[in-house]
Design brief:
It comes from Violaceomyces palustris. With 455 residues, this protein is α/β, with parallel strands linked by helices. The protein is built from eleven helices and nine strands.
């Protein structure tokens, strides 16, 4: 049982606070100023217990552009990938360049009329009623290569899900995915195709129950809506709620309907939540969710806009605390699909996801960033764990309010009466045929290009 300790990170207010002083920091090796190392020799300690990790980075996914003034910058994916490679983390993973999703695969969830529009519209298409019908406006503009971009990140999430269902990996990572706002019939919140729903539907072909966890600052409304009536998917979202904050959903009273009643959990938070309050609440909610619902796989959306100093965010989380949530979910040893999401101060997004890649692979990486072609983005400090407390937002989450949320969540879990039984039927054939050739593994353990080979 997790005991709440909202004061764990109270030292973060100290002007002399450093990243390695955080109780949530993963690497306490002497080289990082943190005292004793977690492992004396991580390369030789219990190698049989190391999870198999697969990493998916679609070719060219960071080259797309929403528009000059748009806060969503796919270039953050290029920064993240370069840091992952420069740290040598690819040596501890199987790295894949997945194929794009097909139109038929997108229609596993999305309406065919919507996918048809998505596949044909271009920036030069004259405005019509369809733009309003499918919610294409300032937040969701039409840009060059939009459909290819959607197929790329969706294909990566589907490939990761299929790798998990075939028991060929324990953890699958796709930082380009996690676009949780897209609805069945429309775009929403910078998201056009909901790759999370597509991946969960794939997991459900083999797994009786899937737990979806969302730590983006915005409510995962698209995923919640898709499974609102289902007892095979439990959705748990930690997010800012109130003051007309997008998408204006995610109250604790939203618990699901029909068979899905009480299988939808929302953790609405206020501005300025800090490391101690967030991580303690996260652990005290997720542990009973897993032990009660007993999922056979987990999908974790790691939106980095919940970090401090995010362009669109209002929380005070450090990268170490964000990564501690990832480490905690990993510790349950269930098949895990890890996805990206929001994040609009791109230098911090890249830092966060590179660090969380190290957490997922069990590697300790130094605070000094390795050299990449994007060094200018990380100036002047060139540190992985740059303090994000400057200009802190006042914490409006009291201990009493967080405890009230925890009690409400536990009360909902009482109604589950254990995990629901699921009658599994014969597995249907893959919609698009054989997936043996879907992946190419472009890197060897030494980071050299590798010829395409069957998975």
């Amino acid at each position: 049982m997790v005991v709440l300790d909202y004061d764990q990170a109270s030292s973060s207010s100290n002007s002399n606070f450093t990243f390695s002083d955080s109780p949530f920091f993963y690497d306490r090796s002497p080289s990082n100023g943190g005292g004793q190392a977690l492992f004396v020799d991580a390369s030789t300690t219990q190698p049989h217990s190391n999870p198999r990790v697969s990493y998916y980075h679609p070719a060219g996914v960071g080259d797309y552009h929403y528009g000059e003034r748009h806060p969503m910058k796919p270039a953050r994916l290029s920064l993240t990938n370069r840091l992952v490679l420069a740290y040598g983390l690819h040596k501890h993973m199987d790295v894949f360049t997945p194929r794009q999703a097909t139109k038929e695969e997108l229609e596993m969830f999305h309406d065919s009329d919507y996918v048809d529009f998505l596949s044909t519209v271009t920036p030069s298409t004259p405005p019509s009623a369809a733009f309003t019908r499918f919610n294409f406006a300032d937040d969701c503009p039409v840009f060059d290569g939009m459909y290819e971009f959607c197929k790329a990140y969706s294909g990566a999430s589907l490939a990761g899900a299929r790798k998990l269902t075939s028991d060929a990996t324990d953890i699958a990572i796709n930082w380009s995915g996690g676009l949780h706002h897209a609805k069945k019939f429309e775009a929403s919140g910078f998201c056009y195709v909901n790759d999370i729903v597509l991946a969960i539907l794939e997991l459900l072909r083999y797994h009786p129950r899937v737990l979806y966890i969302d730590i983006d600052i915005h409510h995962g409304d698209g995923v919640q809506e898709a499974f609102y009536n289902s007892n095979r998917v439990m959705t748990v979202s930690f997010h800012k709620y109130g003051n007309d904050f997008f998408p204006c959903t995610g109250d604790v009273s939203e618990i699901g309907t029909g068979l899905g009643k009480h299988f939808c959990l929302n953790v609405p938070l206020q501005d300025g939540i800090d490391d101690g309050g967030y991580v303690s609440l996260f652990k005290s909610v997720i542990e009973p969710c897993i032990t009660t619902f007993r999922p056979s796989s987990i999908v974790l959306q790691c939106g980095a806009d919940s970090l401090g100093l995010d362009r669109l965010g209002c929380f005070n989380l450090s990268i170490a605390a964000h990564g501690e949530c990832v480490r905690f979910v990993k510790s349950f040893g269930l098949p895990l699909l890890v996805l990206g999401g929001g994040g609009y101060t791109i230098r911090n997004v890249a830092r966060c996801w590179a660090y969380e890649t190290s957490v997922l692979t069990g590697c300790c990486i130094p605070d000094t960033l390795p050299h990449t072609p994007y060094d200018a983005f990380f100036a002047p400090s060139h540190r992985l764990h740059e303090p994000l407390q400057a200009g802190r937002v006042e914490n409006q989450n009291s201990k009493a309010s967080l405890e009230k949320i925890r009690v409400q969540i536990l009360e909902q879990l009482r109604y589950l009466h254990g995990a629901p039984s699921v009658q599994m039927q014969e597995i249907p054939p893959d919609l698009a045929g054989a997936w043996l050739d879907e992946d190419s593994n472009p890197l060897t353990k030494d980071g050299e290009p590798r010829r395409d080979e069957k998975d």
